[in-house]
Amino acid sequence: MRVALMATCVNDAMFPETPKAVLRLLRRLGIDVDFPEAQTCCGQPMVNTGYLDEAVPAVRTYVDAFAGYDAIVTPSGSCAGSARHQHTLVARRSGDPALERAVEQTSPRTYELSEFLVDVVGVADVGAYFPHRVTYHPTCHSLRMLGVGDRPYQLLRAVRGLTLVDLPAASECCGFGGTFAMKNADTSVAMGADKARHVRDTSAEVLVAGDNSCLMHIGGLLSRERSGVRVMHLAEILAQTEDEPAVRI
Amino acid sequence: MTARGAVVHWARDAADANRVIVDVARTHAVDEVVKVKSMVTQEIDLNGALADAGIAAWETDLAELIVQLGDDLPSHILVPAIHRNRAEIREIFLRRMHEVGRPAPTELTDEPVVLAAAAREHLREKFLRARMAVSGANFAVADTGTLVVVESEGNGRMCLTLPEVLVSVVGIEKVVPTFAELDSLLRLLPRSSTGERMNPYTSMWTGVTPGDGPQEVHVVLLDNGRTRALADEVGRQALRCIRCSACLNVCPVYERVGGHAYGSVYPGPIGAILNPLLKGTGDPQTDSLPYASSLCGACFEVCPVRIDIPEVLVHLRTQVVDARRDDSVPKPEAVAMRAAGYAFGNARRLRWAERVSGLAGRALTRFGRSRLPGGRAAAGRLPGPGAAWTGARDLPAPPRESFRAWWRRTKGGRVDE
Amino acid sequence: MSDARSEILSRVRDALADVDPAALPVESPPGAAPTDVLTRFAERVADYRAEVVRCSPDEVAARVADSLVEGSRVVVPPGLDVDVANAFVDEGLSAAELDRVDAVVTACRLGIAETGTIVLDHEADQGRRAITLVPDRHICVVRAEQVVADVPDAMPRLDPGRPLTWISGPSATSDIELERVEGVHGPRTLIVVLVDGNQSTSTSVGDRDGS
């Protein structure tokens, strides 16, 4: 099986440790992962702001970069959701039937990390070790667009040393919402502040999620509040073992 | 409906509909009408049109009464006075009831049961006296000509039963083909709106029943943008809405901004799509509505008639953007999106942009000098549009090396770290 | 307004030019199927803060009499087949006259167990809509064979040509701070007399085990 990593533009530019963690994790599980360098962005920032034409080049690079792979793995529920549910829309807008056909190939092969691990690889215990108190925020697109269900919980529960505590009102949106975070900053911050309060109430050391964009928002608030709670992507926790505690806290 | 003695009118827009209703009122020389809570008559501002014609319109739903007496606007589909507390309601009743009818009792307390009793006494006088009523309808049945009103308090039954003349304004999207198809809707609506197995009262009537209820029955079938919404192949699903308000109750944005922020009788997620669909784009307030969402999808999850609200929101955002594509001076956002589209069109361009951002990152950390929990450097407070982010949220400084630069340098992590 | 009609209908046709009209009615999901329909009905009606009195056919008149306050003014529809002492028959009372009546006794078209609903179709044994609306106390006699399991069972038994009033408990509102208040405009007391072969029992909120 040929597996490609879609790093996502946000991770590529802002959170490179997350795609590195995915590589470490999948290689440990014996999966050879490629990073097609032609990739850029899934196009979601443009689509969700209403700029469909502007999303066409991104979708084009996506289908070109990932053509021929059996599985495209991404550490982002939101970007996987975009590839699976929005690329058809963009391709149709482009008026290019070849792009539509190409999207039919790449869309269904795109998996969010926890889906890939549990459904495709078939593991819940990835041999990770992380001796900390952790709470998990199910990001909206993972939860409702993709329906990842309890897969991230399965993975986290199998991590040795990890104490997983329930996050109150977990399924409520953190308020990030892409450009929403800037266009409606006050509302976004109000939603995020409630999320941050729920996180603090758990006394967790780490807030984990499957989307760095949401974590950047909640983490930005937790940091401004001097809460001491750090945020980490699910991949970075799953990548750590007793022999290789890449990230110390 | 015509076969059963009702008079059917068609209304292209609010003006058409209001004209019909005012004409009926004038024919019967009434100077007041009692009203059943109805969103559609608010949509067309019937009360304003009646007032202009010198006719008083009395809202009889308790919440609508509170809103009307308080010279206020509804803030929720199901509980329009949710923004008022009991003390305010008591004050409104004491201050206003005597100006329009039976005064509130002087010993009025702020207990909901006492306030409801005051409303009962105040409105009963109007119910017994009124000669004309105006209602909406939750559903209309094509094969039998039946109209349906779903309610809880009994004010609907009062209006639908006691006056001599009844006018019902019905959006054309309320029509279901057969009587049997009411079944699932009657089971869905109360469960999704109030959480009850069944609402206290459901009234159904078909034209005129000799000797029982109003002997003159009018029905106004209203378009007012509904055919515009119907022509939108993505947006038309919004016409399935049964006004249960479940989407409002789970919406994190509605929860923070409240119903008035939507500037329409239809607030919340459904309002954010329904208003632009009915009115079209071009008005700044309407154009802002599709953006009043983080696209979290909680609304779609609870919608009993499966309206994919996030999908329609994104679709309408595209319409808002497309309507301004020919602007001579594009918005900064449009410029930024074009730039992003360009950068994402090719990995080489993106690599270059990331190198710039890495350099910027080094510069930004100099302003901030603070660290995020976990030790990563934070960017300082940003000027310009970036302040919308850093006003309340710390921002990690961009890393020195992007992932793709690392991949290239280390040959995918195989050479060295 | 005939031009408005054709204009709107032509807009509808244009809007739906791309749509294949679905001719088949939307099928509704099956309803609940309780094993003991009457007990479910009695529970659900009581759940809505209505009182339920179960009795045998020969006890109906007595149970109805028990449900009325001594000395109150009672109206009955012309076709009611229950003897109600001192009641007068509705012969087109005005709303103002009805407002001076304390109670009404009627039959019904059917009862729906799952939702605790009684449905009136305002035939002669139930009377005009106004008489079950204005008086503050409604006593409704429901016969065992009139009770169906759920809404899907009720629909085919109703005549849409008749005015229909579905009643699930007394009138209520939650408009003030979402606090439920029973009794706004409709009758504030609803007593359902359920007639079957069993002996007389009573179910009401706070007294579920009193049978």
**What is the number of helices of chain C?**
5
In helices, the fraction of residues of chain B equals 40-55%
Largest sheet of chain C, order of strands side by side? 3-2-4-7-12-1-13
Element-by-element helix/strand order of chain C = HHEHEEHEEEEEHEEEEE
Oligomer: heterotrimer
Cα shape of chain B: elongated
Kindly state the mean pLDDT of chain C as a whole number? 90
SS-based class of chain C:
alpha/beta
Mean pLDDT of chain B: 93
Radius of gyration of chain C: 21 Å
Number of helices of chain B: 19
Terminal-residue CA separation of chain C: 61 Å
Overall 3D geometry of chain C?
globular
Ends apart, CA distance between termini of chain B:
79 Å
* Main sheet specs of chain C: 7 strands, mixed
Cα gyration radius of chain B (Å): 28 Å
Please bin the fraction of helical residues of chain C.
10-25%
Q: How can the largest sheet of chain B be summarized?
A: 6 strands, parallel
GO molecular function (chain A): oxidoreductase activity
Protein name (chain A): (Fe-S)-binding protein
Pfam families (chain A): CCG (PF02754)
Domain Cysteine-rich (chain A): 3-80, 134-218
Short description:
Chain A: It comes from Solicola gregarius. The complex is a heterotrimer of chains A (249), B (417) and C (211). With 417 residues, chain B is of the alpha/beta class.
